[in-house]
Amino acid sequence: MYRLNNSAFNILRYELLNYGSDNEIGRIERQFVTKRLKKLRKEKGSPATLDELRDAITDVFPEFSEKILKKAAGANQPPGILSKLKWAAIFASSISGAIWLVNLPFPMIRKPVAEKAPLLLLPSYIGMDNSYRSAINATEQADFLVNQATSIADIKLGGKKVKLAQQNLDKLPVWFLGYYPQAYCGLLGCTWKFTFDEFETARRRVARMDAKVFQEKNAFKSLTEAESALKLAKEQYQKTKNSGEKQKALAQMQTAIISLEQIPRQTLAGKRASTIIATSKPDLNKIITKNGKSSLSGNLIEAAKVFAMEAAQASQNPPHPVYKWEQVEKLWLQAINRLQNVQVTNPNYLEAQKLLAKYQNNQGIIRGRLQAERESKQILEQAEGQIERFIAYPPSQVNQYKAKLRGIINKLETVKSGTTSYPRAQELILSAEKHLKK
Known about the structure:
Blueprint: H1 6-16, H2 24-42, H3 50-57, H4 66-75, H5 81-84, H6 86-102, H7 107-116, H8 122-147, H9 152-171, H10 182-188, H11 196-239, H12 243-262, H13 268-291, H14 293-314, H15 322-340, H16 349-392, H17 398-412, H18 422-437
Helix pairs in contact: 1-2, 1-4, 8-9, 8-11, 9-11, 11-12, 11-13, 12-13, 12-14, 14-15, 15-16, 16-17, 17-18
């Protein structure tokens, strides 16, 4: 008798097609798991258990369907075994139902069981352990791919690992970390001691990498657009003989270089942008010098208008996160900087001053929104941390319970409307107020 029959093998093989990416890496991962299953298919002995099937797959695909694994394990049994074990199955199902009940993710059920009969929570501990290990593994992979990236492909793959780490962290019941039973670890030799502080550290680490992935992708998009615009403007300048068209192309070249200067230097795209600027800016300065100062002033005003338009478009449909408001403010500052360089003797000076007053007012408005977004985000993060600690270590006294809850609500009420944090803050306030009424 072979350890994995055809029916179970086919169930797992078809499900594997739904996992992994569509690129070469995903194909190799699926082939690797399939080889493991084929090996079980050729080995003679007792049927492979659910745990063995899970071990053969979940280290590569942690999110693999538990339902499918159980279905394959059931199909991998010898013919007739269910009829022979009918009453044993009924008994086992009743035991399974009781275990399922005590493993429900509610403190009022788990806490007394954890104190009196921790082994009944073995499925929960195994699930928590698997989620913890998968989260750490995905986090380490993401850290390498994101923080030591050499290409945008590394960043994209790192982004997937970041999401996987976050999914596994979300599976960990934070409120349970405060009374994880040490007897379980001592009995089975477990060394997992994942504390609440470690959870918060892991979550912040994943959040930072997620933000970096987002920044890298946006920077790469900006690089592609600016590089393309610069190339097109250069070609237009060289091709046309019309002086007006040349001036327009020259302004577009200036704008493209300024866009390249806006790309954060710590990103991969920023390093590439520095190289482009170093090779393109000297040529542009020669052209500007050749065309004279009046031409330069006209180009500065046109460049300022381009930046103002980009700033206005980027600020539409608020609220926006901090990084977006920072980007908008930088665009207004670039427009302002260009106008400030228009000389008094230039015939376009009055126009430049009118635009300067308008742009400085707009930049001040954006700065206020940026400050509100920063403060609200910080308040929300602090409140969420207080909520997690409150759930993990709820006060035993009713008065203390309500006082801490009211303190959290008061903090959340300081989150300003019109920010990205406001909807989430209102949601948490409603939830907290419901608990106060109980």
